[in-house]
From TrEMBL:
<dbReference type="InterPro" id="IPR036409">
    <property type="entry name" value="Aldolase_II/adducin_N_sf"/>
</dbReference>
<dbReference type="InterPro" id="IPR001303">
    <property type="entry name" value="Aldolase_II/adducin_N"/>
</dbReference>
<dbReference type="Pfam" id="PF00596">
    <property type="entry name" value="Aldolase_II"/>
</dbReference>
<protein>
    <submittedName>
        <fullName>Class II aldolase/adducin family protein</fullName>
    </submittedName>
</protein>
<dbReference type="InterPro" id="IPR051017">
    <property type="entry name" value="Aldolase-II_Adducin_sf"/>
</dbReference>
<feature type="domain" description="Class II aldolase/adducin N-terminal">
    <location>
        <begin position="11"/>
        <end position="190"/>
    </location>
</feature>
<comment type="similarity">
    <text>Belongs to the aldolase class II family.</text>
</comment>
Amino acid sequence: MSSAMVRAVRKRLVNGCRVLAGHGQGDLIWGHLSVRMPGEPDKLFIKPAGLGLEEIDDEHLIVADLDGNRLTGRWPMHAEVFIHTEIFRRRADVQAVVHTHPSHAVAFSALGVPLQPVGHEGALFIDGLPVFSQTSDLIVNAELGRALASTLGVERAALMRNHGIVTVGQSIGEAVMTALLLEKACRVQLLAMSAGGGLVLPAAADARAKRDRLYRPATFETAFDYCERLVAARASTGCSCGGHGP
């Protein structure tokens, strides 16, 4: 692959980290985003440990292999690199992986109830939102990474009970936007449930039609481009927030 393509992917990864942070998915120095290296699918670029999502720049990125070994980069590797490596190993269709700890999704994961299409965002997950419940601890080895990848299966996202979320995509934009939409879906359902009474939901066919109309690959990229523009606008004014909540 050309050096220009590699630089573009690295820049997209940096912006993806900042978009996640700007939409409330930063958690001090925890949470991470990765993408396969162009032309080398058995390697990945990944955010390092020790820095917040909003701090990430090109110089911080690590190159790792699918065994979780750091190949290049001076910053430490996240202990949970196995979330990324084992999903990449299992899912040839996945190009990017997000793992974060957004507050509403973590709270929702503890309820033991299914996510419903209360709003548009919930419709994205109508055909499956698996829940990983083997442990709430960190995914610190390949065995746990494989278990999480198995729970995720062919879906686009999974809740990690009492822990966080994992989302995947065929691009950085798709994985990041899926993370933002999942957090909003959890927040909207929690809000509706807190009002008391039962939920009035659309028919499944209606929700699926809405999902297919709203959430196409091109739409994910357009939405992510918008979020990147917010990152650039805030950087130009000296704001480190990176964006705003959906």
